[in-house]
Amino acid sequence: MKMAKIFKFLKKGAKKAGKKGGGEEKSPWPEGTRIGVFGHRNCGKTVYYTVLYNEGKVTKNIQISVTDNETSAELLSNFRSIWGIAPARGAGTIVDQRGEREFPDPTAQPRILQFNAILDQKKKMPVVTLDYGGEAVSISGESDQSEKVKSFMADADGILFFFDPKIMGAEMEIQARASAFVNMLEKISPLKARLPIPVGLVITKSDTLPGYRGEDQAVLIDPEDEQFLSENFDLFLEKTLQRVEGDSEWTGTVRGVLVKLREFLRVVVGRTLDFQIFFISNTGNKPEKIGADVGRSIYKPPEKIKPSGVKEPFYWILNAIDRNKKLNVMRRVVKFVGIISLVWILLYSMPFLYHFNFLLPRAEKVEDNIMESVDNNLMNTSGDQRNKIYRAYDRYSRKWLVREFFAGYGVAAANLADLYYNFNVGKAIKQLDNMINEFAYIVENRDIWPKYNPGKDSLIYDSSHTELLAGLEKMHVGDEGALLYQRSDRVLNYWDLFARFITSNRDSAVVSEISRQVDFDMNNAENYSSTEEKLGEAMLGLTAEKKKEVAAVAGLDEYESIRKTVNNSSDPSYLLGKAPRELEQIRSKLSPDKHAEQIAAIDSYLAEVNRWKSRRTYTCILETVPDMGHLHIEVTGSGQSPSWSRETQLLEGEEVRLRWKLGDDIHIAFDELKYPCTWGTKSSDKRVLQGRYALFALEGEITFQNIDKTVTIRFKRSLRDMLPGLK
User: Fold this and answer.
1) Which of 382, 446, 465, 596 is deepest in the core (most CB within 10 A)?
2) Which domain, by its residues, includes 565?
3) Distance between CA 164 and CA 202 in Å, rounded?
């Protein structure tokens, strides 16, 4: 059994071992990425799902759509309630009219919500989550929903802990809610063990917090500070507060929330790198209080609903889950490779010990004893002695272990066996080599080829051809395993292919057969001699001209095809990247004698491409720069930082000259009129255009998202008009 088969067998065994009781228990939940939202009563779960779905229809980084009628009906009903939209039915018509705004009633029974989420317009993920009454996770008592919620959370791919900041004044309630969440985490991973899933803390109703001003404060932890999550809570608190220290009011609010939740954070911090804190508002404005109920106040949604930060928790946790799944695959691969490596060592230790301590020494001992008896002089050995040595090495080379694991030793032993067996046929081998050389000479010289008689569809041999064939046939006798028989058999097969090549007028099928046979013999035949190699190269020479002719025809067809594609394309990544590589391959197939025009066109195209690889000057015009702002633009090498040494302000309508080559980065800084100019070092907003074709991204609209401003840049000569073409 080869090692590849052993690996396959072990892999199947590992798969079977991974199944519990012969098969996996079917999950009671729908298929998809399971997001657990852990939140107590009145923390805003139901409103969050509704607002998230509504917001997810129009954003770029995350798009959300429902996948079942129940979810759609639930979210639509909540949407109408929150936004105050009531359907009115007339004769044959249905229209929306303004109704009473009110938050949805507390969730009575758990509801499965199913979504499709698309991340960054490319990664699609089916999502399953659960909406339920907050009493189900309360530490003070069990509800009829508790077991169902626990079951859902236990196998969740990621969990968001929703915290209502309106209970900040109730220390015992905060500790109770944190303890409930920690108890749930304990069911996923024991205390102090690594949490295998991402965990996010979501502070809802952030519009009620002092210093909260909206979307920019939604994400608390800077990605660059993620390493501090593996440290203690005090260091985590210090580093986190440094990020918001510019706003004293907001700093105080954040400190208060983190300190209140310190017991929760101490359990999470250090156990997972996939942790984040969010501040969100489902409404953006404070709801209007309209009454009170047992244990809670009653509010209705504000007139204007402007959700803030609701997308960030879902976007973050889906990305974290996707990254976590890829890491888990790598961990399984590493574990599997480790097991295979151990098995490899065990399996290979035994064959090596058996081979080098028994099989090989036994064969060598026969040769050593005989050669010592004749003073290591091969000429003094008898035929019987050489036959004993031959049988010892021949038996060794035929052993399964040697053939499968020590093939190199087997080949060497077989060569030694042949040496002893054919000791008296050296003269015949020399004669065969002479005949092989003569055959190679005939193949290489067309003037002495056999003549083709088309009437009889046969070849006319002269005396040299006849004598050569007779000599080869004389060698082709005896034991089929003998050296002379094997080599003469291969040579006669080449003669047959040579004859068919001539009579078939170089048919492509014969050409392919010659190539396959010679390639096979060169790589696999035993005792393949240097003279046979010379003959094989001469046979391959027969196919070279035919292949070159076929390649030239194919190359011309490929040229015409790519020419149309190039001339109809305006994609720089194709015209400056993929197309040159394809044209270089096509050029190697074309004949300079027959395709000079096409080769010249390719050379001209490649020269144009090379010009883009050197820095050249490009002139662009700042068509629009809003609100009397100005720009700073600098070109750097890939990954380099700008120096902003040119203290020039670029205004609307001005021409800008840029020296750029493929792969350079373009840094753009926008300075608003209301702030003093820092020449690009501390601008209102910045953009970096990266990638091999960054210059093309500069042409058109450039949006600065942090300040919500867009500039328009046009090149005096369109870049796409400057791209190379094929004549």
Assistant:
1) 465
2) 550-612
3) 9
